[in-house]
Write a structure and sequence with these properties.
Belongs to the STXBP/unc-18/SEC1 family. With about 450 residues, the chain is mainly α. The protein contains 16 helices and seven strands. About 45% of the residues lie in helices and about 5% in strands. The chain has a three-stranded antiparallel sheet, covered by helices on one side. It has a two-stranded parallel ribbon with strand order 4-6. It is elongated, with a radius of gyration of 54 Å.
């Protein structure tokens, strides 16, 4: 009911704006997160509103009683009281804000419920969906109830459109003129006629001829009437198909032609299901009582994964929670998105729109990286080769020949232009000759002295 009636923001986080400390000096409007960390939300989200209103007030009174140091009329001059207040201030404030949030949400839901006459609207919707009245007998005078609600100013236009849609499905189609009369009586705009016509795309027959011999469509699951001692509320007469499907699956009665197996079904699987059902229905007087068995905390439970294509409602998630608690299974609900009444009507109306205007996610162009990431940087300008300094080769050149001196030289020594160098050379030759003659003379004398004895 919270998601269907209140403006809850369901994005990355589920949030809701509420007023804290209303009527006090520190009054503020705060957007609070609703999630698994919110203990109050986890405990109450699957309960009926009638039960929530009673239990929520009792739990809040217990919470205030467990924290008497935060009472408004408490004497705060006591030192010990102040210490206790400071020690539990954070925890108390979080708990107080959580209870305030959910009390405000429950109050606003009840205001919507009364101002829009949702009790009468939902009762008529249950009759359209089941064909039974509050006493589980065949419903009568449903057309008169519909017209009466369409005349009521308290019933908003989306609820009127939804009532007409349910009535068409209940009757298996109406004459085209009757549909237009109902729309005019409800004061609906012409574009809502497209929503009604698009039901054909979902397999619902909208218009039928005057003499129609076509048999009505049989429901997928047979209606199971509640036992006489059941205290089921009149607003819960309609049982969701997903709940009946899960019950038939757990009991082994699910029709395999409608829900075929993804792998061949073996006899072992059937024996396991039969054994589990027998253990659940075992009597306390049996030889082996099963009630005394203790379940290990770490023992995993059987998992059931349900995928709903095209969206699932929050009522269907509640049905999975009830099956999980009743049959001791872990039921996981997966879907493309969660549906609310307003979102469902809008999406049915969009079925007749050109798909190019719908901006469907899978038809959007694939995201690409920015173009600048693929641009190559311009190559750097070539650097000119370093200029080599000219190397001096003067030290490599041979010295110039002494042409002037060579011009004055004479090979025979008779030249008229003898130079000092040539005269010096002649003296040197004479000295060498004189030394040679002296050596020869000394050598000859030594030889004569050596052989003188033998003469």
């Amino acid at each position: 009911m919270v998601h269907d009636l209140l403006p809850v923001t369901d994005g990355d986080k589920v949030t809701y704006k509420t007023v804290l400390n209303k009527g006090n000096k520190n009054e503020e409007v705060k957007e609070m997160e609703i999630g698994e960390n919110d203990r109050v939300w986890v405990d109450y989200r699957h309960m009926h509103m009638k039960d929530v209103l009673g239990k929520l007030g009792e739990d809040f009174a217990k919470f205030r009683a467990a924290n008497p140091q935060f009472a408004d009329d408490n004497d705060k001059s006591n030192v010990n009281t102040i210490k206790d207040m400071l020690g539990g201030l954070t925890e108390f404030q979080q708990g107080k804000d959580a209870y305030t949030l959910h009390l405000n949400m429950a109050e606003e839901c009840m205001n919507y419920f009364q101002s829009r006459k949702l009790l009468e609207v939902s009762s008529t919707e249950q009759s359209f969906a089941t064909g039974l009245d509050e006493n589980y007998k065949k419903a009568k005078n449903l057309a008169a109830q519909l017209v009466q609600l369409l005349d009521d100013d308290s019933v908003v236009h989306p609820d009127r459109l939804r009532l007409i849609l349910l009535y068409i499905m209940y009757r298996g189609g109406l004459l085209g003129g009757d549909i237009r009369k109902l729309m005019a009586h409800a004061g609906l705009p012409p574009q809502d006629g497209g929503v009604i016509a698009n039901l054909e795309l979902l397999g619902v027959r909208v218009e039928k001829p005057l003499k129609d011999e076509k048999p009505p469509v049989q429901p997928l699951f047979n209606r199971r009437n509640p036992p006489p001692e059941s205290e089921e509320l009149s607003l819960n007469r309609y049982e969701l198909a997903i709940k009946q499907m899960l019950e038939d699956q757990l009991q082994g009665n699910l029709d395999p032609t409608i829900f075929p197996f993804t792998r061949p079904h073996t006899e072992t699987d059937g024996a396991i299901v039969a054994q589990e059902m027998q253990s659940q229905q075992a009597s306390l007087r049996s030889a082996k009582p099963t009630w005394a068995r203790t379940r290990s905390v770490d023992q995993p439970r059987q998992r059931i994964i349900v995928f709903m294509a095209g969206g699932a409602t929050y009522g269907e998630s509640r049905a999975c929670h009830e099956i999980s608690a009743a049959y001791n299974r872990d039921v996981y609900l997966a879907t493309t998105h969660m549906l609310t009444p307003g979102l469902f009507l809008r999406q049915v109306g969009d079925l007749g729109v050109d798909r190019r205007r719908l901006d469907l996610p899978y038809e959007r162009p694939k995201p690409t990286a920015p173009a600048h990431l693929f641009e190559r940087e311009a190559p750097p300008a070539p650097t000119p080769p370093p200029q080599k300094k000219p190397v001096s080769t003067a030290h490599l050149n041979p010295p110039a020949p002494p042409e002037a001196l060579m011009a004055g030289m004479s090979i025979n020594g008779n030249g008229s232009g003898s130079s000092p160098a040539s005269s010096g050379s002649g003296k040197h030759d004479k000295k060498d000759k004189k030394d040679k003659d002296k050596k020869d003379k000394d050598k000859k004398e030594k030889k004569e002295k050596k052989y003188r004895f033998f003469k």
